[in-house]
Structure formats: C-alpha cells, structure tokens
Design brief:
By secondary structure, this protein is of the alpha+beta class. It is about 25% helix and about 30% strand.
Length: about 350
Amino acid sequence: MIKQSENADITSLTTFGITAGCGSLFEYDTDSDLAALHSQGVFRRPYITLGGGSNLLFVNGFYPGAVITSRNDNVTWRGLDTDFPLMECGAALQLDRACSLAAEAGLWGLENLSGIPGSVGGAAVQNAGAYGAEFADAAVTLKVFDTRTGQTAEMQAANCGYGYRTSIFKAPENSGRYIITAVTFRLSRPCRANLSYRGLTEALGYDEITAEAASALTPRQIRTAVLAVRDRKLPDPSKAGSAGSFFKNPVVSADEYQQIICLSGMEPSGHRQPDGSIKLSAAWLIDKAGCRTLTCGGAALWPSQPLVLVNASGATGADVAALAAEVSARVRQRFGVTLTPEVIYIR
C-alpha cells in the first residue's frame, strides 16, 4: 500500500531535529508498490530515498521533489536452529533493532553496530560501521528495486563495492537508481567476538583480555559495552539532534602523513591500514585545529566528540552546513587535509 502526502513535513523522519519538508512524500510497503510508482512515472521526476534520515541534511529546509520511504520493518529468520542462521530485515527496520534481535538470540555478527542511528536500508547504502565492524561484514544479500527497469533483483553483498563508508549505491552513475528493500544477514552461533576496538575491552572491565575470556563473552555483553561507549561519547538524540559522525576519517598515504607532520609539527592520531596508508582520526584533526568551541546559529560541535555536529538550539540546515564548512576550512589550513562529509546534503 502506498501513502502519498503533498507538501509534507518530514522533520520527524530525520535525526537532526531540523525543520524539513518535501514536495511529495511516498510511503510504501512492498516491492509491488515501487513497481506501481514506476508505472506512474514518479522516478522520472526529481526524487530521493529516505531511510532512517540519519545521514541527510536538508540544507534549505525544503526539498521540492519527491521523497520515497519504506515502511517495511519485517524480520524473517531462516535456519535459526543452525550454527549460521540468516536474518532478513526489511529496509525500514532500525539497524539497532536488528542488532538487538541478533544479540538477544545469542547470535554474533551485528553487536558492534549497536546504537548506530538509521535504518537497515540506509546502512546498506552507507556501509555503516563502528568499533571495528561494518555492515558489509554480516550482510550476504540485498533485495533492490531498479528504478530504471522497474524490476526487483537480488544482489550479493560481495558485489556491492563495499568499502569505508561507500558502496556502488553511492557511485555517481548509480545515483538514485537502486532502492534497497531488504537485507539478509548471516549470523553466527559460535563465538566471534570482535574486540579490535580497544575501548570495548576496557568497557568490559579488562585491561587486557585473554582468548579464553573472550570466548566466554556473549553478543549481549558486547552490545552492552558498545552502547556504554557510545553513551559516554555521543549525544542523547532526545536532547540534541545529530547525524552521528559528520565527517569520514580521512585516509592518507605514508608520504602524505609525513607531509602533515612537517606542516603542522604534530603527529596525527591514526591507524595504519593493510595497504600502508593511514586512516586519520577526523575527531583529532578537528580538535587540534581549534574547532571544538565553534558554533553557527543553533549548530555546535558535541563537547565530548567533536566529530559530531549537533542541533544545539533551533539550528537550521544552513547553520549546520556553514559550521561544517568552517570546520573543514580550519582543518585544511592547519593540516592540509580535506574532510569529506558522511552526511548527504539535500537542497
């Protein structure tokens, strides 16, 4: 079933808490609904898809085109009595809900993603990740609707070009082409505790953890630790709207890393990648560039995590965009590094 609204207020469908509206809002339940919209020519006009609204910034407060959003938050289990069950989630299911269901079932694979705002469909586009894990680590197949052909197809996650906060769905040539309608995750009953993020070990009460102790952990314990770490660093959505991490952590070559040290006289926080490049901490760069106390209108940086831009007090989309631009400019001037937003600007 399709619900259509004209000149719709979609503020509640985003996480920034900033006033937002659109020319037309289409809420759908099934792939057949999308086929009907295709037949009506909806996809021949300007449109965007909206998942949990956690990675979008409506800069001008109103998008004149159509917004397409799913209401399918169904969950279907397959092979639940096996060691590696499959969990199919509708695109509208909140990612954290999927993490909770898996952990409560004693299944490994999604626990490190706990607390990430947004929907399963949005996470599939963005390859959402945190604390040493990414969406692509557990996803096996995706159901997608092709707006060019009007057909639904199944894609293997391995063929979706997943990388750090990217996928084929974000490629310019595929802009708006695919609408993800469901995702299937492969989970694990045997222990697969991912403690690569040191803060989780500390949150579990260990300075160091032995293999034996790690093997005795449960997905629920890891989920609890992840949520505790997030709560210490990130704003309560009911008190300050945000999109989570606003910028990607920039990746530079070893030579570029040395140039940054020469330019700034500082050694940036970062992690060496398997190919020899270094993933820098965007939060560290923002902090050391003197941005922590910057504000613009009602927009500010979250005190305990400057990577998060928040709607502190009646911010507009333009406020947030202007603050992000100032932060980027200061980091570029101080370190010669360009920050790339994770958040997508809608105008």
